[in-house]
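Chapter summary example: a protein plus S-adenosyl-L-homocysteine.
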Amino acid sequence: MPQLVLLPGKDRTLARRHPWIFAGSVDKLTGRARPGDTVDVVAANGRPLAKAAWSPQSKIRARVWSFDPEEIIDDAFFKRRIQAAVERRRTMPGLFDQDGLRLIHGESDDLPGVIADRYGDSVVVQLTAAGPEKWRQAIVAALQRTTGCARLYERSDSDVRRLEGLEPVAGWRLGEAPPEPLTIVENGVTMKVDIVSGHKTGFYLDQRDNRLLTRDLAAGRSVLNCFCYTGGFSLQALAGGASCVLSIDSSAPALATAKDNLALNPWLDAQRAEWRDADVFSELRALKNADRRFDLIVLDPPKFAPSAAHAEQAARAYRDINVFGFRLLNPGGLLMSYSCSGGIDADFFQRIVAEAAVAAGRDARILRRLAAPADHPVALRFSEGDYLKGLLCQAD
Ligand code: SAH
C-alpha cells in the first residue's frame, strides 16, 4: 500500500478528524498511486493515522475514508457506510417518508465526494472526487442494494470535478429514463424533478423545511419569491393561502417547470401567481421604483461565494439584494434571506443582513435562524457541511 507521509505537526487536523489533507501538509508519497487509489496516511514519525483516497490533481491532496488505519477499503466498506447513511435518515420522525430525500451528504456521512438523492423510486448519485470516481461500481451497487431503487442516474457534472482533473460524467447506471417526467410530492405539493438537466441533482432538497415554514407564514400575505427556480417556495406559499405570489428567476427552463408545477397542483389558485423571467438585481430596483410592497419576501440566491476567496465580492451582492428586500417590505413584513455560500459563515451573513437593514432604514429582528434539514446533516468535525444559513427577520 502506498504511504502518504505528512510533514511534522501537520497531523493536527486529522487528530480533530477533519477528513481533508491539503497539499501543504504532505511531505511525500512513497510507492505508486493513481488518482483515487487508497493510501496509508502516516505522521512524520511513521505513526499510522488513516486510510485516504489520493487526489494528486487537487489542492485537497487526499480525503480520508477511515480514521481506523486498519480498515480495509473495499466493496464491503462502501456497503457499510452507505447503509449507515441511509439508516441515519430514519432517526428524525417522518423524514424517511419524504419522496425527495438526500441519502448521502458527502463528508458529513463519512463518504467524502459522494452525494446521493432519492426521488421516489429513482436515485441520483453525484461523485465529485477521485476517490469515489474509482469506487463508482461499488457505490452504485451498494446504493441499489440498500434502497431497492428502480433506476439510478449518475449526475457527476458538477464544476468541482475540474479541480480534481475529472471530466463531467452523466448517464443511467441502472434502468433507464422513466416514461413519464419524474415528480415528487413535497409536503403535499407535487413537483417535477428534472434529474438529467435540472440544477444540482434536479431539486433543492436542502430548502424543504424552509419552504414548509413559508407555507405556515403565508396566509393572507403578499409574497415575493426571488430566485424561485421551479417554484418550490412559491407553491408552498400558495398552499398556505398567500394573497399573491410574484416569483422571479432568470432561467427560462426553470420558470417553465415552475408553471408546469403549478398546473400539476390544480387545487392551488393559479390566479394568484405571477412569474417573471428577469434578473433579480434589476427587478428588485424596478419593483422599488414602481412602489410595490410585500408582506413576505424570500431571497434564495445561488452560491455567490463558492470559497472564502470570493467572500468580499459576494458580500456586496448579498447586501444589495437584502437592502432591496428590506425596502420592499410592508410594516411588520417578513424577510427570509439565505446564503448557501461555503465562503460566508453564519456570523458574516448575519452582519451583511444587519447592514442591509440599516442601509434600508429599517429596524428588524431575527425571529428564527434557518438551516438545511436533517437529511443534510453536518458532521461536528466538518463545519464546511454547514453551508446553508438563513434568517427569518421581521421588520418594524
Ligand atoms: N429557491 C429555489 C432554489 C433557488 S436556486 C428552490 O427552493 O428550489 C437559485 C436560482 O437563482 C436558480 O434558479 C437560478 O436560475 C437563479 N438565478 C441565478 N442568478 C439569478 C439572477 N441574477 N436573477 C434571477 N435569477 C437568478
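Key point: The longest helix spans residues 311-327.
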